[in-house]
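Issue 218. Parser rejects a valid record. Input:
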Amino acid sequence: MTQPDTEANPLDFNPPPAPSALERVAAGEVEARPKSLKMPPPQTPMKVARELLDHLFTRAGIPTLVFWRGQWWQYTGTHWKITEELALRGKL
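Output the parser choked on:
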């Protein structure tokens, strides 16, 4: 007869639940977004683009997304990095 294993089984590990969106905003991990964004009419695409830039890619009134030398650049908080257009489309 074998003795039962007294060591914890690593497969039995239950990680703590992920923090809620409200907790992540409170901790400063993510920025809160307005529940509904009132956009200008589609007949004014430049106004729509400015609203999107203001609400999605601006921190403290400073743009964090620019198109420079044929590429999109996004500010991470410490440096600028090239961002693929498909990644940007996913955020819209």
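Fixed in the parser; the record now loads. The longest strand covers residues 71-75.
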